[in-house]
């Protein structure tokens, strides 16, 4: 079985590639600027079409830099790294003589309203703020017509827990030094999924023909940022005396910081109804495995 990973060859994309190669997949990257001779070019796909494959996985090209929400620079980068590549792949899928079995495109739980008194699932109305509207455009750029032979799945992600990328990788050095901190005010919703569970979820999505449409790709345990901070300090057996200011995360995480400080409480309703079983549904167990064994599968 062949999978094409579109958009990114950053470390997290490499971990996904390694997981699928261990499962017996052939994995090829399709990038705006190919890095090796084995990589495909998005320009070539635009002119010559999508090579024959079984699965297309659409990742964001990169984490966006620190930005001011609603700014023209941020919107321009969002289109260039997320929306435009998704449109290109959708057009290639529309004209493919042998379309793949499934197209999985990443999205974000930032699409939901920033309202901390409501539990959001996939059937709820989406947000109207600038970030939410851009994410909705990103999703629509990837959505295929209902009659298309390729099954389309949108994965709305929160914080992906991994030692090597994202939030956890940024704050681990501080905890190791005994400078553990509450993230933000502590009462912000903290939508999360352990990287290993995400790998298995992608594999499950490929194998289950009934999985289609938008899914909140999150662990079922609803926690806030203080719960996460306390669990991390407990697992590492370190104190937690300080507070990381919001500006720290905007500098370190770019647009991902908007998820960390989101007030949206998001639940994976469709995922649980589908029968998917999390190996690490609780934050403490996920952190114990992550910090003792790492997130390689």
Walk me through what this model shows.
41% of the residues lie in helices and 19% in strands. The chain is an alpha/beta fold and 297 residues long. Helix 3 links the parallel strand 4 and strand 5 (102-108). Helix 3 packs parallel to helix 4. The longest helix has 24 residues, at 72-95. The radius of gyration is 19 Å and the shape is globular.
Rounded to the nearest angstrom, the distance between the terminal CA atoms is 19 Å
State the share of residues found in helices, binned by percent. Answer: 40-55%
Number of helices, counting only DSSP H or I runs of 4 residues or more: 11
Outline: globular
Helix and strand sequence: EHEEHEHEEHEEHEEHEHEHHEHH
What would you report as the Rg, rounded to the nearest angstrom? 19 Å
Q: What fraction of the residues are assigned to beta strands by DSSP?
A: 15-25%
- What structural category arises from helix and sheet content? alpha/beta
Query: Count the strands?
Result: 13
Oligomer: single chain
Q: Poorly predicted ranges (pLDDT <50, ≥5 residues)? A: 65-69
Strand order of the largest sheet: 3-2-1-4-5-7-11
* Major β-sheet profile: 7 strands, parallel
Mean pLDDT: 89
């Amino acid at each position: 079985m062949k999978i094409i990973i579109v958009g990114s060859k950053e470390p997290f994309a490499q971990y996904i590639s390694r997981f699928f190669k261990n499962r017996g997949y052939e994995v090829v990257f399709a990038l705006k600027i190919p890095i090796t001779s084995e990589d495909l070019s998005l320009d070539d796909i635009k002119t010559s079409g999508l090579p024959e494959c079984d699965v297309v996985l659409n990742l964001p090209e990169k984490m966006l830099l620190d930005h001011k929400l609603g700014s023209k620079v941020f919107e321009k980068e969002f289109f260039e790294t997320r929306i435009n590549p998704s449109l290109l792949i959708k057009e290639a899928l529309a004209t493919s003589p042998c379309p793949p079995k499934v197209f999985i495109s990443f999205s974000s739980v930032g699409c939901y309203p920033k309202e901390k008194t409501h539990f959001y699932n996939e059937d709820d109305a989406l947000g109207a703020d600038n970030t939410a509207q851009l994410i909705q455009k990103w999703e629509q750029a990837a959505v295929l017509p209902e009659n298309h032979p390729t099954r389309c799945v949108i994965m709305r992600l929160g914080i992906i827990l991994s030692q090597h990328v994202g939030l956890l990788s940024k704050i681990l050095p501080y905890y190791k030094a005994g400078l553990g901190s509450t993230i933000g005010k502590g009462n912000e919703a903290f939508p999360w999924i352990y990287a290993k569970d995400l790998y298995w979820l992608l594999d499950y999505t490929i194998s289950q023909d009934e999985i289609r449409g938008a899914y909140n790709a999150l662990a079922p345990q609803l926690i806030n940022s203080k719960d996460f901070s306390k669990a991390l300090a407990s697992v590492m057996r370190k104190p937690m005396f300080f507070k990381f200011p919001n500006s720290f995360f905007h500098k370190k995480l770019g647009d991902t910081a908007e998820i960390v400080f989101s007030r949206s409480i998001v639940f994976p309703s469709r995922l649980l109804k589908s029968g998917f079983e999390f190996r690490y549904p609780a934050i403490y167990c996920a952190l114990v495995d992550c910090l003792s064994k790492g997130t390689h599968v």
